[in-house]
Amino acid sequence: MRRDVFQAIADPTRRAIINLIANQSMNVNAIAENFKISRPAVSLQVKILEECGLISIITQGRERVCEARLEPLREVSSWVENYRRHWEERHARLDDVLLTMDDEEKKPIKKKRKK
Q1: 53: left (phi over 0), alpha (psi -120 to 50) or beta
Q2: Which residue spans adopt a coiled-coil conformation according to this UniProt entry (predicted)?
Q3: How does residue 6 score in pLDDT terms, banded at 50, 70 and 90?
Q4: 89: part of which helix (H) or strand (E)?
Q5: Structural domain tally of the chain?
Q6: pTM, whole model, 2 decimals?
Q7: pLDDT over 80 at 1, yes or no
Q8: Phi, psi dihedrals of residue 11, rounded to the nearest 5°
Q9: How many whole angstroms separate alpha carbon 8 and alpha carbon 54?
Q10: Residues 63 and 9 occupy one common structural domain
Q11: Residues 66-80: pLDDT tens digits?
């Protein structure tokens, strides 16, 4: 099954693993020490991240070292950016409406003269 980057970041444990190794490569045992789940469960999450292209695993002697490959996250960033722009435009329109309403409230009430 081909997994994508959106599947990878859907799980909080996988996001935490990405954050953990983003600045420093680690072996699977070192990663597992940071979680309250079993070592095999961490290995499964690492495997999914590898399938999604967010981690590469390099064998160094008997150890498997995980390195982050963050380039695929650009796809997520691009997708989110479309919605960020959409919501910024909507908030700007709402600001305009609220300012107009505020201006209307601040206008003095004109009393009609009796004739």
Answers
A1: left
A2: none
A3: very high
A4: helix 73-106
A5: 2
A6: 0.74
A7: no
A8: -100, 130
A9: 8
A10: yes
A11: 999 999 999 999 999
